[in-house]
Amino acid sequence: MVGSDYRMPPKRRRGPVASAAAAIVDHPWLVLLVWLLLVPPAVFFALRVQSDNSVDRLIVSGDADERATRQFRTLFPEGDYVVFLAEADDPFAPAVLRRVDALEAALRAVPHVKPLSALTIYREAHAGFTPDEAGARSFRAFATGTRLFAKQGLVGDGVLGIPVEIDVARREDLTATLDALDAAIAPFTDAPAPLSAVRKIGGPYVDLYLSRETQRSTLLYMPLFAAFIVLLNLFLYRSVRTLLAFLVTIAVTVLATEAFAGAVGFVSTIVSSLVPLTVLITCTATLVYIHSLYVACPEGTDRREHQVFTLRNKFLPCTASIFAAGVGFAALRVSGIRPIRDMGTWVAAGMGITWLASFTLFPALERVLKTPVQSERKTAGDWWPRIVDRLPGASYRLRFVLVPGSILLMLCGLGALVGIPGTIEPMRLETDSLDYIDHHLPLYRDTRRFEATMGGLSVSEAWVRIPGGKALDPAVLHGLHEFTRTLERDPRVGSAMGPTTLLQWIRYVGGQGDALPEDPGAWPKLAADLEQLLLERPELRGYVDLKTLGSARVRVITRAGLDGYVGLKAFLEGAWQDTVRREPALSGCTLSVVGVGILQAKIAHYLVPTLTQSFALTAGVIFVAFLLVFRSGVARLMAMIPSVFAILVMFLVMRTTGIALNVATILIASTVLGASENDQIHFFYHFQEKRRDGTTEQALRHALLVSGRAIVFATFINAGGFLALALSPLPPMRQFGIVSACAFLLSMIADFSALPAALWIFFRERPDS
Q1: Is the pLDDT assigned to residue 251 strictly greater than 80?
Q2: Domains and CATH numbers, the chain
Q3: What predicted TM-score, i.e. pTM, was given to this entire model?
Q4: 131-141 burial, b if ≥16 CB within 10 A, otherwise e?
């Protein structure tokens, strides 16, 4: 599959690479035995990889906010929450209330769950309640006479909510409980009348959907990619034995990569599902580069010597490209987003395993299976030399169009990413896990409706540490009450609930209204009532740490409008400082903003640094690899033109098609750069081979003949592999697959247009006559 002029050099003293290659070729069965012994433990560890898409897994362990949230939860432990919504034209009609009562009873029968509805609260305060006409009128007046029920998501316009706390320790138990809840409500969702519908919302349901769809997507694209490899291999090499060598090497590489994750304790998330696909693609492309030279064994040449020559010749470019890609992905360790950081290490390990398998397992399989060479079986690509005849001259004639045009498109892509001050905003960031599911699903639509009508779902915690164990001091309680009122005056806050919210509940249920007295003289009795209530009702202790009386919490549910992580923290801390100025009793207290809401906001805070820092490190590592291999900086910078061109133009495409940056698409830059630079390294390696004693045109022709077809086929492998993600039901994965596939094609186009044009300009030569 390369030019007929590409033959083995004269024999010379072997170096360590050639000696190692000869040992592998001479002892293939020993190599296969070693890999075979590694398979059973690899299967064991690979099966230990669990799936978890919860927000807690998104922030790296040790982050200040993550650490504070963990400390907070030791004082205020609680389970996961979901909410069931019973909708009706008149939710207070007697028949509707009976149906809601039956629904809550079905939920209560599920182990490890604690449902709570407005009906339950009313029944506790009004013994003997029955949902007849009179009882329904009384309940309506009770449920609509205060904002407290709306704040808790219990009552809304045409809906009664049933929040359910799930108290389980393991993610597997949470999944089983969610399935049991689904089974419990199935009769009500199938035949809701007299309700109009029964809906479910909540973060655990979103996480469960993401986990299952991530696994399903993996099971979908792996067979698709396997079929793609089969078809591509038979098209290229037209040999079942060659196909078997490819499939075994790729399967073992992916298995060993998954085993590494299981051994170190990584979990599978929506992001890390890209790992096996990335390793699949890189491994396949590397094997294509190696085998394309191997099958070009000239007629009459000793097969063993040619295989040793192939391994030695491809060792440097393949090693450099895999090393650069591995270290480039390892640069993702700079990210504060935990799945992205883990993915960096995971892929880097996969790159190392790919390199080892490509230069040991694959040649051993080639030797044992006696895979045919071109002189024995015709391979694809006879058309490529005709294209090579035209490419150098065409790129020379269009050099002052191709290079400036590429630069202009790259500048447009950069502007689409970072924006233009006063004209174009930077690209939009998505951090809400709800945006990662299909927007047509009932779960998405129901949750968005709940957020719009009942105050939002972004929950942050204001953790107040109180010196001297004075959490139940009347003046401190009054200050905490004023803090919640300050927060609720802002239209961006759906509700704020603290220790004094319990007092409001007790007063309202007792018929005294939900407003607490302004008279400071009334607060000692209120504090005593609250203390007695907390001692008698353990389930109500979620807002004060009774062990030390040194901590209290205010749960804040916010709507859209707060400016990300910085804006959310600044808003809560500003409200706290404003309250402290008016309430001297709080002057010695300290506030920490913790919880899921602040962690979710911090993901967005980390997205842009993840993109810029990891991309800069990846580009720097690849440039150093180019410099070490090719000994020239300026020309090697030009070799990165195709990858950088593809990445920046893809940001332009994303901007024009409305695709946002999220935990998946943020990886496009590092993924495309890390995978496509293989092409440039192989191209330049063979360009240098001929450039030492030839002209620019001769070097271009040689590089295109030797590596050009492999670049084309590797690009279609990359693009076809990632395009399989277009079938994923998860929008970020679907977007990532489509955009990445387009980027690889753009990189290949630049390989054969902008890159040769830049080389003509750099070397200032004309084509040979």
Answers
A1: yes
A2: 16-56+237-429+602-763 (1.20.1640.10), 79-207 (3.30.70), 467-588 (no CATH)
A3: 0.70
A4: beeebbeebbe
